[in-house]
Write a structure and sequence with these properties.
Elements: E1 15-23, H1 29-37, E2 49-55, H2 57-63, E3 79-80, E4 86-87, E5 94-100, H3 103-117, E6 121-130, H4 153-157, E7 169-178, H5 180-184, H6 188-195, H7 213-216, H8 219-222, E8 226-227, E9 230-233, E10 238-246, H9 250-260, E11 273-275, E12 279-283, H10 286-290
Antiparallel strand pairs: 1-5, 1-6, 2-5, 3-4, 7-10, 7-11, 7-12, 8-10, 9-10
């Protein structure tokens, strides 16, 4: 069986950094894949840090056509919804998701990775994230309630074994900034109606509004997504890094369309959070990445 990148399912890390890079020369795509494969074996941890590597779908397909899912494409156009709401497309060539037990080890590892790739790719976007009360997002609600258990998640959100790119996954990465003042002005009951769940124990409301976040992202309707969201920011500006993982692009893209109101109503949560970035990346299996390694160090 093809083994996924270990960090995808490595829950419990307290510190995260998301590095998005762009090629300096488009012709250097093969060299970049080789260099990334040499950073560290994705099957293991390095110095207590987990690395998850993702490539712009078109870049990975050009370098590894037989190891790439069909019909997967980058986030190259904004998602335009109703009421002048839209989600920006800020696609980059490479994402390095570095996670560990503390900020210092993640910081050191991230510095080393950027330096190792400096001749081929430049840093375009960097976001530092962290755990908030273990499993809460900055709205105060429990994060990842609908995630399947780790026993079944790989079967649901990884590319099937008999398909190109087996053991890999599609990643949607978005940075959402919160309107903290507007959110805090809501009563607890109002917040629960926006989300569609109770705040204390994350029980779905029996009368959830059709505009609630739960209703607009219902996995029973759109398909399975494994969420690894993390908070980011500081007191003056903060929000959520949406980290959504799926076996194919459709559940993720359909979810965004639903949130933006392209199916009639807009997700009420989008009135209190706004996306700043958006990119799709393919996360190849550990074996598929290591096939391009030129070093065993």
């Amino acid at each position: 069986m093809t083994v996924p990148q270990t960090g995808i399912f490595a829950l419990g890390n307290l510190a995260h950094t998301y590095l998005e890079l762009d090629l300096r020369d488009p012709a250097a795509a093969p060299a970049l894949v080789h260099a990334v494969a040499d950073l560290s074996e994705p099957r293991t941890t390095m110095g207590g840090v987990n690395l998850v590597t993702g490539f712009r779908p078109e870049l990975w397909r050009a370098v590894a056509p037989d190891r790439s899912p069909r019909d997967l494409h980058g986030f190259v156009e904004p998602v335009v919804g109703i009421e002048d709401f839209s989600m920006p497309a800020t696609q980059h060539d490479l994402v390095l998701w570095v996670a560990g037990g503390s900020n210092d080890v993640v910081f050191d590892a991230a510095l080393g990775m950027i330096a190792a790739l400096a001749e081929l790719a430049g840093l375009a976007e960097e976001t530092v994230s962290w755990s908030y009360h273990r499993d809460l997002d900055l709205s105060g609600f429990i994060e990842g309630t609908e995630n399947p258990s780790l026993l079944v998640a790989p079967q649901q959100v990884l590319v099937p074994q008999d398909s190109p790119g087996a053991g890999g996954a599609v990643l949607l990465l978005q940075k959402w900034v919160h309107d903290a003042a507007a959110w805090s002005a809501l009563s607890r009951e109002q917040q629960e109606r926006v989300i569609g769940r109770t705040k204390q124990d994350s029980v779905e409301l029996s009368d959830r509004p059709v505009t609630s976040h739960v209703a607009r992202t219902d996995q029973e309707e759109f398909g399975h997504i494994f969420r690894r969201n993390t908070p980011y920011g500081w007191v003056g500006e903060h929000g959520t890094m949406f980290v959504g993982i799926s076996a194919d692009q459709s559940p993720l893209a359909t979810m965004l369309d639903s949130m933006a109101g392209r199916y009639g109503v807009r997700d009420e949560l989008t009135r209190y959070a706004r996306p700043l970035t958006g990119g799709y990346y393919f996360l190849p299996s550990a074996e598929d990445i290591l096939a391009f390694a030129t070093s065993t160090a």
